[in-house]
Design brief:
583 residues, alpha+beta, seven-stranded mixed β-sheet, five-stranded antiparallel β-sheet
Length: 583
């Protein structure tokens, strides 16, 4: 066969193979190759929703405390992008924002889309874009900005690098704040530049998050934090938490946790304990308000009609319950012997609150099942201690010992519960219960969410799920107000509480639990104070609670917390322009 014929034969065979292959691709595998082509020339891009901003109240006007800054993510197509050029550009302009192992990205076969840097500033993104590197594009994002630094950080929380709210309001209201991302699907050219042609183009708009308005009063929050910092500087406390609530609604007006941290630099803390909002959480140790709880035990007995402020009992400075000696902190001769319940509260006698428990059970000499069940009914069912309040924040439930638990020393445990130990509650539970004791007897779910901003106006939040229940009679509440006012005036408020105002409260000094047991030296304690402010003769307008402690252990008493309460209560009178009564 001649060389020409051989060449013609080879050519014909080659064309035949090509024709068969084209037939196979265009007819048999048509759908498969169309899909591959579509994949290579289709741009899928997330349209990031704008995160809602956070406001506090400044009088009647909302004011921003958390806002957004525009930043960019850098995205590449490794099959098109020049590796050396993009690595150089990123290292020059956004080195600290690189989020990918670039060598690994470029060595991964088939990879056509990868985010290689996040939170790149506008100026840096512009410099990278000006280099006109093929297969590089930018996605607009919002980065959280906290213009007031550490202010209210325990309340606000932060947003992490993935755009998720963590802790505080950012965490608990993340869904409301974050909104819903959209999607852009469009035909693109070889450099992944979106084209405006194609029947398959899809654009699902993003639904931006809601701008949230908190009930927090910005000026009050700032002053409370200032006063708490001063208290830490002048006591053995390293930590302080403060709550201020409006007494008739239980709206939270201040929620301070010291020390603070900077949410814009949230990684710069020693450990995650810095993030905890200790007014609603106790992740490490139980919180026991101590003698603050005497106001709950006394109000239960008064409400049941088994006790009045003039009811008497014999105070021997201690009681024996379940073979355990439970003593008073104050053992002065002035209260030894037959005394009334008013004096028992004034001197914060444990024997007095235990007597209230006995009277609840109908036996002035012994603690019994009926007394335990009634105390539990008030603590758990009415005051909702040991369960979540429903406030719009991350919170712990805590726990209470049930009245018929199978345990040795149950009566002693309940005796301790009357003065606020042997239980695990939170500050928000305690102040909400205290509010019910003094506000006329109404338990109301506390709230920190005033509403959202829509079209420049505040839309009040839906409060349908909030509980409002009368748990004490108005007469019991009035009696407790008098007792708590008398408790201050009998001992320590002279020269502190102003004429024309009614200020009542109760302190608490709790033993710390060290190694699973109470520190009996009373040298490691937590100080608490709960109280209210009113015009003289009027209903309480604000309830305030303070907690001081040192996680490593220090002697912090209720009176220490009381001094901080004094400063805050007097500021509240001036700040909210409460008019004096009786003058």
């Amino acid at each position: 066969m001649s060389r020409t014929k051989i060449l013609k034969t080879i050519t014909l065979v080659a064309f035949a193979i090509i024709a068969v292959r084209l037939f196979f691709i265009q007819i048999i595998e048509h759908d498969k190759w169309v899909a591959k082509a579509s994949d290579q020339h289709t741009l899928l891009e997330t349209i990031v929703a704008k995160r809602g901003e956070i406001y506090m109240m400044n009088g009647s006007e909302p004011v921003q405390v958390v806002l957004n800054e525009t930043v960019f993510s850098v995205i590449i197509d490794p099959a098109v992008t020049d590796k050396d050029r993009i690595i150089t550009a990123l290292n020059e302009h956004a080195k600290d924002q690189i989020t990918a192992d670039l060598d690994k990205v470029f060595s991964t076969e088939g990879l056509r889309y990868y985010i290689v840097a996040k939170n790149v500033s506008h100026s840096a993104a512009t410099k990278i874009a000006d280099q006109d590197i093929p297969g590089v594009w930018f996605q607009t994002n919002n980065q959280r900005a906290y213009p007031e630094g550490e202010f209210a950080s325990g309340l606000l929380g932060f947003v992490n690098a993935d755009g998720l709210g963590q802790y505080g309001v950012e965490g608990s209201l993340n869904k409301l704040l974050s909104g819903t991302n959209g999607l852009l699907k469009t035909t693109s050219d070889i450099n992944n530049v979106a084209l405006s042609i194609g029947d398959d183009n899809v654009k699902i708009p993003a639904e931006d998050g809601k701008d949230v308005v908190l009930s927090i009063d910005r000026g009050l929050e700032e002053k409370v934090e200032e006063l708490a910092k001063a208290t830490i500087a002048n006591t053995a406390a390293t930590n302080a938490s403060v709550l201020v609530l409006k007494a008739d609604t239980n709206e939270v007006l201040a929620m301070a946790n010291l020390p603070n941290y900077n949410p814009g630099d949230y990684g710069n803390v020693k450990d995650e304990s810095a993030y905890i909002n200790y007014t609603t959480q106790n992740p490490y140790d139980p919180y026991e308000p101590a003698s603050v709880c005497k106001s709950f035990a006394f109000s239960a007995a008064i409400n049941e009609g088994v006790m009045t402020p003039e009811t008497t009992y014999f105070n021997d400075h201690y009681d024996i319950v379940d073979e355990r000696k439970i003593e008073n902190a104050w053992k002065g001769s002035n209260v030894y012997g037959q005394i009334n319940m008013k004096d028992a509260l004034n001197w914060s006698l444990n024997t007095g609150s235990m007597q209230a428990l006995r009277l609840l059970g109908g036996d002035a000499e012994n603690i019994n099942r009926e007394g335990r069940e009634k105390l539990y009914d008030y603590y758990y069912n009415r005051f909702r201690l040991g369960q979540k309040t429903g406030i719009e924040l991350i919170e712990d439930a805590g726990s209470l010992i049930e009245p018929n638990a199978n345990m040795y020393g149950l009566n002693a445990a309940y005796a301790n519960m009357t003065f606020g130990q042997n239980l695990n509650v939170t500050m928000i539970q305690t102040i909400t219960a205290f509010s019910a004791v003094v506000n006329g007897g109404f338990y109301r779910t506390p709230t920190i969410l005033k509403g959202t901003i829509e079209d420049g106006k505040i839309v009040e939040s839906n409060q349908e799920d909030r509980v409002e229940e009368q748990v004490l009679s108005s007469e019991t509440s009035a009696t407790m107000r008098d007792l708590l006012i008398n408790n201050r005036s009998s001992k320590r408020s002279q020269g502190i509480d102003r004429k024309g105002y009614s200020v009542g409260g109760k302190s608490g000094t709790a033993q710390m639990i060290i190694g699973g047991a109470y520190d009996t030296t009373m040298e490691k304690t937590v100080g608490s104070y709960a109280g209210f402010v009113a015009s003289e003769g009027g209903m309480p307008e604000y309830v305030i609670m303070v907690k001081l402690w040192n996680p490593k252990g220090a002697k912090l008493e209720g009176k220490d917390a009381g001094y901080l309460f004094d400063s805050i209560s007097n500021f509240v009178i001036d700040y909210f322009k409460i008019k004096p009564g009786g003058v």
